[in-house]
Write a structure and sequence with these properties.
With 257 residues, this protein is α+β, with helices and mostly antiparallel strands. It has helices at 39-48, 83-91, 106-119, 130-138, 185-199, and strands at residues 11-13, 17-18, 26-27, 29-33, 52-54, 57-61, 70-75, 96-100, 144-150, 156-165, 168-176, 204-210, 227-230, 233-236. The protein folds into 2 domains: 4-69, no CATH class; 72-236, Gcn5-related N-acetyltransferase (GNAT) (Aminopeptidase), CATH 3.40.630. It is globular, with a radius of gyration of 18 Å. It comes from Acetobacter pomorum.
Length: 257
Amino acid sequence: MTSSQDRPHFFYTAPPGACPYLPSRTERKILVDLATPEANFLHSRLSHAGFRRSHTLAYAPICDGCSACIPIRLPVACFKPDRTQKRTIRRNADLTRSVIPPIATDEQYALFRRYLDSRHSDGEMAGMSMHDYRIMVEETPVDTRIVEFRAPDSTLMAASLIDVLEDGLSAVYSFYSTETPQRSLGSFAILSLLELTAQMKLPYLYLGYWVPGSPKMAYKERFQPAEILRNGAWQKLNPNQPPCIERPLPFPEGPLF
Protein backbone atom coordinates (compact mmCIF):
# COMPACT_ATOMS: atom_id res chain seq x y z
CA MET A 1 0.00 0.00 0.00
CA THR A 2 1.32 3.45 -0.92
CA SER A 3 1.57 5.89 1.98
CA SER A 4 0.28 9.46 1.70
CA GLN A 5 3.88 10.70 1.79
CA ASP A 6 4.59 8.77 -1.43
CA ARG A 7 1.81 10.45 -3.39
CA PRO A 8 2.84 13.11 -5.91
CA HIS A 9 2.47 16.78 -5.02
CA PHE A 10 1.89 19.09 -7.94
CA PHE A 11 3.67 22.36 -8.58
CA TYR A 12 1.95 25.33 -10.19
CA THR A 13 3.21 28.66 -11.49
CA ALA A 14 1.64 32.02 -10.70
CA PRO A 15 1.21 34.82 -13.26
CA PRO A 16 4.06 37.36 -13.33
CA GLY A 17 3.75 40.43 -11.12
CA ALA A 18 5.74 43.40 -9.88
CA CYS A 19 8.69 42.50 -7.67
CA PRO A 20 8.10 43.73 -4.10
CA TYR A 21 11.83 43.99 -3.35
CA LEU A 22 13.66 45.31 -6.41
CA PRO A 23 12.16 48.11 -8.55
CA SER A 24 11.53 47.60 -12.25
CA ARG A 25 11.74 43.82 -11.94
CA THR A 26 9.09 41.19 -12.50
CA GLU A 27 8.32 38.45 -10.00
CA ARG A 28 7.12 34.94 -10.77
CA LYS A 29 6.43 32.18 -8.26
CA ILE A 30 6.08 28.43 -8.15
CA LEU A 31 3.29 27.25 -5.84
CA VAL A 32 2.43 24.08 -3.93
CA ASP A 33 -0.89 23.47 -2.18
CA LEU A 34 -0.22 22.53 1.45
CA ALA A 35 -3.82 21.63 2.26
CA THR A 36 -3.09 17.90 2.48
CA PRO A 37 -3.16 15.36 5.34
CA GLU A 38 0.65 15.50 5.51
CA ALA A 39 0.82 19.32 5.46
CA ASN A 40 3.37 19.67 8.27
CA PHE A 41 5.70 17.09 6.72
CA LEU A 42 5.41 18.70 3.29
CA HIS A 43 5.87 22.21 4.66
CA SER A 44 9.05 21.20 6.49
CA ARG A 45 10.55 19.59 3.39
CA LEU A 46 9.67 22.54 1.18
CA SER A 47 11.03 25.05 3.70
CA HIS A 48 14.32 23.17 3.72
CA ALA A 49 14.30 23.52 -0.09
CA GLY A 50 13.83 27.29 0.08
CA PHE A 51 10.05 27.66 -0.04
CA ARG A 52 7.93 30.00 2.10
CA ARG A 53 4.28 29.79 3.19
CA SER A 54 1.39 32.13 2.49
CA HIS A 55 -2.02 30.92 3.71
CA THR A 56 -2.42 27.36 2.38
CA LEU A 57 0.29 27.65 -0.27
CA ALA A 58 4.05 27.20 -0.25
CA TYR A 59 5.89 29.33 -2.78
CA ALA A 60 9.34 30.05 -4.16
CA PRO A 61 10.53 32.59 -6.75
CA ILE A 62 11.36 31.38 -10.27
CA CYS A 63 11.91 34.76 -11.87
CA ASP A 64 13.32 34.83 -15.41
CA GLY A 65 16.98 35.79 -15.36
CA CYS A 66 17.03 36.65 -11.66
CA SER A 67 17.78 34.74 -8.47
CA ALA A 68 18.23 37.67 -6.11
CA CYS A 69 15.90 36.17 -3.48
CA ILE A 70 18.16 33.87 -1.47
CA PRO A 71 16.72 31.63 1.29
CA ILE A 72 18.36 32.37 4.63
CA ARG A 73 18.28 30.67 8.02
CA LEU A 74 20.09 31.05 11.35
CA PRO A 75 21.74 28.04 13.05
CA VAL A 76 20.63 28.61 16.62
CA ALA A 77 23.49 26.82 18.39
CA CYS A 78 26.09 29.01 16.69
CA PHE A 79 24.42 32.40 17.10
CA LYS A 80 26.12 35.00 19.28
CA PRO A 81 24.57 38.47 19.56
CA ASP A 82 26.87 41.36 18.74
CA ARG A 83 27.22 44.46 20.90
CA THR A 84 24.26 46.23 19.28
CA GLN A 85 22.04 43.17 19.61
CA LYS A 86 22.98 42.79 23.28
CA ARG A 87 21.85 46.39 23.85
CA THR A 88 18.59 45.62 22.06
CA ILE A 89 17.99 42.66 24.36
CA ARG A 90 18.64 44.81 27.44
CA ARG A 91 16.35 47.59 26.24
CA ASN A 92 13.50 45.14 25.89
CA ALA A 93 14.07 43.16 29.08
CA ASP A 94 10.77 44.50 30.42
CA LEU A 95 8.73 42.82 27.67
CA THR A 96 7.03 39.49 28.23
CA ARG A 97 6.72 36.89 25.48
CA SER A 98 3.78 34.54 25.07
CA VAL A 99 3.10 31.91 22.42
CA ILE A 100 -0.58 31.59 21.57
CA PRO A 101 -2.79 29.85 18.98
CA PRO A 102 -3.21 31.55 15.57
CA ILE A 103 -6.36 33.51 16.35
CA ALA A 104 -6.58 37.07 15.03
CA THR A 105 -7.63 39.80 17.47
CA ASP A 106 -8.65 43.42 17.08
CA GLU A 107 -5.68 44.44 19.21
CA GLN A 108 -3.25 42.65 16.91
CA TYR A 109 -4.84 44.15 13.83
CA ALA A 110 -4.67 47.68 15.27
CA LEU A 111 -0.91 47.26 15.78
CA PHE A 112 -0.55 45.60 12.37
CA ARG A 113 -2.41 48.51 10.76
CA ARG A 114 -0.21 51.13 12.43
CA TYR A 115 2.90 49.22 11.42
CA LEU A 116 1.84 49.06 7.76
CA ASP A 117 0.88 52.73 7.67
CA SER A 118 4.25 53.69 9.12
CA ARG A 119 6.62 51.32 7.32
CA HIS A 120 4.88 49.88 4.26
CA SER A 121 2.20 52.36 3.22
CA ASP A 122 2.98 51.77 -0.47
CA GLY A 123 3.45 48.00 -0.23
CA GLU A 124 1.27 45.18 -1.52
CA MET A 125 -0.16 44.61 1.98
CA ALA A 126 -1.07 48.26 2.61
CA GLY A 127 -4.78 47.80 1.97
CA MET A 128 -5.31 44.77 4.20
CA SER A 129 -8.53 44.83 6.22
CA MET A 130 -9.29 43.01 9.46
CA HIS A 131 -10.80 40.25 7.34
CA ASP A 132 -7.58 39.98 5.32
CA TYR A 133 -5.52 39.90 8.50
CA ARG A 134 -7.68 37.15 9.97
CA ILE A 135 -7.17 35.07 6.83
CA MET A 136 -3.40 35.61 6.99
CA VAL A 137 -3.30 34.38 10.59
CA GLU A 138 -5.96 31.70 10.72
CA GLU A 139 -5.96 30.18 7.23
CA THR A 140 -3.17 27.69 7.81
CA PRO A 141 -2.98 23.91 7.34
CA VAL A 142 0.23 23.62 9.38
CA ASP A 143 1.41 24.10 12.97
CA THR A 144 1.20 27.89 13.21
CA ARG A 145 1.40 30.11 16.28
CA ILE A 146 1.52 33.78 17.22
CA VAL A 147 4.23 35.15 19.47
CA GLU A 148 3.15 38.29 21.33
CA PHE A 149 5.45 40.74 23.10
CA ARG A 150 3.83 42.91 25.78
CA ALA A 151 4.95 45.82 27.93
CA PRO A 152 4.50 45.73 31.73
CA ASP A 153 1.13 47.48 31.35
CA SER A 154 0.04 44.69 28.93
CA THR A 155 0.30 46.91 25.84
CA LEU A 156 0.96 44.80 22.75
CA MET A 157 4.31 46.01 21.41
CA ALA A 158 5.11 43.40 18.75
CA ALA A 159 3.87 40.13 17.31
CA SER A 160 5.32 37.41 15.10
CA LEU A 161 3.44 34.82 13.07
CA ILE A 162 5.52 31.63 13.08
CA ASP A 163 5.33 28.09 11.74
CA VAL A 164 6.80 25.10 13.57
CA LEU A 165 8.89 22.90 11.27
CA GLU A 166 10.61 19.59 11.86
CA ASP A 167 14.00 21.32 12.05
CA GLY A 168 13.14 24.79 13.27
CA LEU A 169 10.82 27.75 13.36
CA SER A 170 9.85 29.77 10.31
CA ALA A 171 9.27 33.48 10.87
CA VAL A 172 6.32 34.14 8.55
CA TYR A 173 5.64 37.80 9.39
CA SER A 174 6.42 40.21 12.22
CA PHE A 175 4.99 43.63 13.03
CA TYR A 176 5.60 46.01 15.88
CA SER A 177 5.15 49.46 17.32
CA THR A 178 7.18 52.03 15.40
CA GLU A 179 6.59 54.68 18.07
CA THR A 180 9.55 53.51 20.16
CA PRO A 181 12.43 53.24 17.66
CA GLN A 182 15.00 53.05 20.46
CA ARG A 183 13.72 49.55 21.24
CA SER A 184 14.57 48.17 17.76
CA LEU A 185 11.57 45.88 18.09
CA GLY A 186 12.02 44.25 14.69
CA SER A 187 15.50 43.06 15.62
CA PHE A 188 14.34 42.12 19.11
CA ALA A 189 11.59 39.91 17.69
CA ILE A 190 14.20 37.91 15.76
CA LEU A 191 16.48 37.69 18.79
CA SER A 192 13.60 36.45 20.91
CA LEU A 193 12.57 33.91 18.26
CA LEU A 194 16.14 32.61 18.27
CA GLU A 195 15.81 32.06 22.01
CA LEU A 196 12.42 30.40 21.56
CA THR A 197 13.82 28.09 18.86
CA ALA A 198 16.60 27.02 21.22
CA GLN A 199 14.14 26.43 24.05
CA MET A 200 12.13 24.17 21.74
CA LYS A 201 15.37 22.27 20.98
CA LEU A 202 15.13 23.03 17.26
CA PRO A 203 18.27 23.83 15.25
CA TYR A 204 17.21 26.59 12.82
CA LEU A 205 15.28 29.82 12.57
CA TYR A 206 14.17 30.37 8.96
CA LEU A 207 13.95 34.06 8.01
CA GLY A 208 12.64 33.78 4.47
CA TYR A 209 14.57 35.51 1.70
CA TRP A 210 17.65 37.67 1.87
CA VAL A 211 17.74 40.03 -1.12
CA PRO A 212 21.09 41.76 -1.70
CA GLY A 213 20.38 45.27 -2.94
CA SER A 214 17.00 45.53 -1.21
CA PRO A 215 16.96 47.90 1.79
CA LYS A 216 13.86 46.07 3.07
CA MET A 217 15.84 42.85 3.47
CA ALA A 218 19.26 44.18 4.48
CA TYR A 219 18.59 43.63 8.21
CA LYS A 220 18.78 39.86 7.84
CA GLU A 221 22.50 39.82 7.16
CA ARG A 222 23.13 41.46 10.54
CA PHE A 223 22.38 38.15 12.28
CA GLN A 224 25.50 36.01 12.15
CA PRO A 225 26.41 33.32 11.52
CA ALA A 226 23.76 32.72 8.89
CA GLU A 227 23.28 30.12 6.18
CA ILE A 228 21.98 30.65 2.65
CA LEU A 229 20.69 28.09 0.15
CA ARG A 230 22.88 27.93 -2.95
CA ASN A 231 22.96 25.23 -5.61
CA GLY A 232 20.72 22.98 -3.53
CA ALA A 233 22.85 23.13 -0.37
CA TRP A 234 22.86 25.33 2.73
CA GLN A 235 26.15 27.22 3.06
CA LYS A 236 27.55 29.75 5.50
CA LEU A 237 26.87 33.33 4.44
CA ASN A 238 29.90 35.56 4.12
CA PRO A 239 28.44 39.08 4.30
CA ASN A 240 31.67 40.52 2.88
CA GLN A 241 31.53 38.36 -0.24
CA PRO A 242 28.50 38.81 -2.54
CA PRO A 243 26.90 35.46 -3.37
CA CYS A 244 27.07 34.15 -6.91
CA ILE A 245 23.70 34.94 -8.48
CA GLU A 246 22.61 32.30 -10.97
CA ARG A 247 19.34 31.69 -12.69
CA PRO A 248 17.24 29.49 -10.40
CA LEU A 249 16.02 26.06 -11.32
CA PRO A 250 12.25 25.82 -11.94
CA PHE A 251 12.03 23.10 -9.27
CA PRO A 252 14.07 22.39 -6.15
CA GLU A 253 17.30 20.59 -6.94
CA GLY A 254 17.41 17.12 -5.42
CA PRO A 255 14.62 15.08 -3.80
CA LEU A 256 12.24 16.73 -1.38
CA PHE A 257 11.15 13.52 0.31
